[in-house]
User: What shape does this take?
Amino acid sequence: MSTLHILYTAELPPALSRLWSEGDALLLAGAAVTLALQPALTLPQPCLALVDAVQARGLSARWPSAIALLDAAGWVALAVAHDKSLSWS
Amino acid sequence: MRLLYIAARAPYADDRAQELLDTLLVAASFGAQVSVLFQDDGVWQLLPGQNGAALGRKSLGAQLEALPLFEVDHIYTDAVSLAERGLAGNDQSSKDLLLPAQALDAPALAALLAGHDQVIRL
Assistant: This one.
């Protein structure tokens, strides 16, 4: 039973790690995309991000290559690939 | 369909705690299998002795006490969230909370989430 964790906040909730299981994935949406640029922060893996949110904030030039960018269709495919989604807002 | 509701907000600050409870009760009244986890500032919702009338609001605590009447018996807390706020939970020696709730550590929380089909966190 894998979960897609969708994070909308500019801070990483400590509770997320307590609800994390093997096979889960983290999707950075909205303000959460800035988390990818914090060098001291280790994000759970796999971690992906919504391209619209990245482009809107002017973050594309400095975006880390390790975090894949998704469009809306990619988001749908990612959601379907997991048993459920959990929105952290 | 097993539904997990995660109550993560302090009561009375905004409407999220009340809205989560409302959606939970609707699901329960239609016969869905409902569990509720109180996490982060959501554990403050479980303090006894609430008087919402002081703020011109309904008492959330009084409504939560009715959960067993709606056959919502799977009630959990995040043990770390309790400890961070100096709350003891409900064991034999103390009764800090208005409902019998099972405190879960991190592995048990992950297993709880894995055991449900849908999850809503407010």
About this structure: Helices of chain A lie at 14-18, 51-56, 72-80.
